[in-house]
Amino acid sequence: MAMAFKKIALVTGANRGIGFEIVRQLAIRGVRVYLAARSKGKGLAAAEKLRSQGLDVEFIVLDVSNRQSILQAFREFSEKETKLDILINNAAILIDRGSVLTLDQETLQTTMVTNVYGPLQMIQTFHPLIPKGGRIINISSGSGSLTEMNGYAPAYSISKTTLNALTRLASIELNERGVAVNSMCPGWVRTDMGGEMAPRSIEQGADTAVWLALDAPSHLTGRFFRDRAEIPW
Length: 233
Ligand SMILES: NC(=O)c1ccc[n+]([C@@H]2O[C@H](COP(=O)([O-])OP(=O)(O)OC[C@H]3O[C@@H](n4cnc5c(N)ncnc54)[C@H](OP(=O)(O)O)[C@@H]3O)[C@@H](O)[C@H]2O)c1
Hints:
Blueprint: E1 8-11, H1 17-28, E2 32-37, H2 40-51, E3 57-61, H3 67-80, E4 86-89, H4 105-126, E5 135-139, H5 154-175, E6 180-184, H6 202-214, E7 224-226, E8 229-230
Parallel strand pairs: 1-2, 1-4, 2-3, 4-5, 5-6, 6-7
Antiparallel strand pairs: 7-8
This protein binds NADP nicotinamide-adenine-dinucleotide phosphate (NAP).
NADP nicotinamide-adenine-dinucleotide phosphate binds next to helix 1.
């Protein structure tokens, strides 16, 4: 009987880094988590690692830069589940480190496809399955904050600012249905993207996303968080 009340989550880009850790922490808290990854081999191996620890983790193949892949993942997901309580748009790429004065449009376009069009289509496709009380969390970055941005990685920064706009817009419409939509910044975290010099552990990087998914008051929506506290756009 308890199974009917089990929360269901889906995390994109979850075969490594912060996404993998979010899956682990949610599953430890009793959530059934769909670990989504673009590589079948890497995704299955990551899911198996958590399943071998007794966690309720399912693998689903999902390339957020590919529209057909998102639709196929939705079909597969809806054959198994009737609802999605928590959607975490985590997958992202960082492919530029240069100057906005020399930023080429191809780099910007490639970045936007994964970091913005992906989360946009994920929300558009999966929102009908999200019940009242459900939560969408977009993993953003301080680099996307108009207040904090410092010139670092312009294509990445623009993509995260746009992701934050998506958070605001979706939060307004989904508020009517009691679904919260928030952005969060994990801080500078020791992952393949963050590098070895980053001060934060992966566990710390995942913490606020898990808090937003399970513990934050449900009226908090359309906001931007780091360390469980609101930060400026
Ligand atoms: N690390 C930091 O310091 C930091 C700071 C601020 C914000 N963030 C944000 O935190 C999130 C996670 O970052 P991270 O540090 O864990 O990055 P990461 O170590 O580079 O991992 C990125 C993950 O995204 C996946 N991915 C990339 N493109 C994808 C696509 N088209 N479809 C599906 N999955 C895709 C990767 O899969 P593959 O293994 O197949 O490549 C990988 O699993 C990102 O949104 C990032 O922008 C990170």
